[in-house]
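Write out structure tokens for Ribosome-binding factor A.
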Amino acid sequence: MTMRANRVAEQMKKELSDIISRKLKDPRIGFVTVTDVEVTGDLQQATVYISVLGEDYEKEQTLLGLTKSKGFIRTEIGQRIRLRKTPELSFEIDSSVAYGNRIDTLLRGIQEPKED
């Protein structure tokens, strides 16, 4: 990514967190954390990585709710960040947090002394 794409991605990350937590009223959307935003070099598309607290069903419902709210979210982003064209949004579940927790659990299991 270019330097400008990085700046736009960071600004979008902040604004998306605010929009999702304060503006969206969809009951399907649970506790969501925006972990990362990747914007293409031409600023036409953005992939938003989210982490959701809950089970797989709740994650799917949250992803569905966010996908249905794309238009509203994109309009809000366009009003908050002055760009010639607001990037098209796509949402994905970020599994790196769960993966990191799993690795941490395994490492803690190795470090604990075994009692005989």
